[in-house]
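Format notes (please read before filing issues)

Several people have asked whether sequences and structure tokens are stored in separate files. They are not. Every record keeps both together, in the order shown below: the sequence lines, then the token lines. Line labels are part of the format and must not be stripped during preprocessing.
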Amino acid sequence: MPNHMHGIIFIVGAPLVGALSVDPRMVGKDRAGTRPAPTTSLGNIVGLFKSISTHQYAINVNANNWTVFPSTLWQRNYYERIIRNEDELNRIRAYILNNPQQWDNDDNNPLRIFSPGET
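Then the structure lines:
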């Protein structure tokens, strides 16, 4: 998508502290509990990615006359989801692969053509 990106990050060897269900009704339901999983490692990965890509973008603005981005390059935060099994991983992979096909209908697409009655 031109206005956002998706990715799957595998953090090998990361502890699963807090990622397991604590609600007895949710045992075996592949759902997160009320305590969030630690994101220190993921936060560092995302922060570093944003920093490096912003730096490279700035270099190319100056060296290769790329268009100056009118605002911040990245939003302040990010959305994360813990993928718990192979089926969920495959569904998310399919979503990511098919997501760009939705750009024509995206509310943030400046070239979107609205149908009569749509706002």
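For reference, the curators noted about this record: The first helix runs from residue 40 to 64. Residues 37-104 form one domain.
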